[in-house]
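[scheduler] slot 2 assigned
[scheduler] job type: sequence-to-structure, two independent chains
[scheduler] chain ordering preserved from manifest
[runner] begin chain α
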Amino acid sequence: MGLAGQYFAKSAIFFGAAALCIPALIALSRIRADEIDYARARNAGRGEHAKSYHRIFDLGKNRNLYIFSACVFLFQFADASLLPVVACVFLFQFADASLLPVVGENLARKARLNTHHYSWPA
């Protein structure tokens, strides 16, 4: 793809990607409907538990999903141009999380002080 873009035209990359869709469509057209196990495709149980579905909370117990998520995270943020953005976001999140309790406590203290000096008529 890179060679096609370098030696022919920049749009040749997109034509090459479109051309690679043709074998994928041929492979998908060869799948017969009776070969698909719909219970397995929906992640349903097996045997007498075929009608019961796995809950969303079961995903939290899946160790392989955590490993896959970490790999996707590292892959997406491996781009050097995104590192300053990620650092800035994490810095602001850390600053918010650390300063919010202090600011909230100060505001609550000021509110308590102000209500002692002024009383509303009943």
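[runner] end chain α
[runner] begin chain β
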Amino acid sequence: MSVQGNLEYGKFSDRLREEILKELLALANQITGLAKQYAPEATTHLRGSIDYLVREASVGIAVEVGSPVEYGAYVEFGTKPHWISREGFDALVRWVDEKQLDRISRFVKHGTTSRASRKVKEGQKYSQREKEIRAIAYAIKTKISKRGTQAQRFMEKSLRELGLEFQLDKDSNSMVYSVDLGEYLTPRMQMLNEKAAGRI
């Protein structure tokens, strides 16, 4: 899942190309910052992985903002109801533990936010705390199997806030928001030309 844009340079001077590059770097930085702001707090790994890449060639420039995290698209676009694999459940257990969601459950049930003991009693597989964490993870797993996950649209919100027009391109392996960089730059070209000429 990413935002991508390409721009062919055409017959631009080197100075104008430099100004265009600065403008597109600033845009990529803005999109990245907003995407990190809008990405759900629960997925700090996803939020921290959002970054941009600018590739320049003699004929043009390509800008991409996104995350290499494989579940980023699921957070952005949501999912249909599905069963979570054993590995997915283990990751969900770790997430519940990291977020200390068992404290909320204990507060609701017992009026305390202290965590249960991690000590495993003889003859048992899990400690009381692990049982509570796994029960919460199982409840989340069950909800996902019945309802799926809700789309967060953090990338889309970022593009809309910046007033960028985009289209969603889907293929068998990915979904990409495409932004027309030429359209973005058109109202800014006079200013960029003046900067390149040294008048600003």
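[runner] end chain β
[qc] chain β: The two ends are 37 Å apart (CA to CA).
[scheduler] slot 2 released
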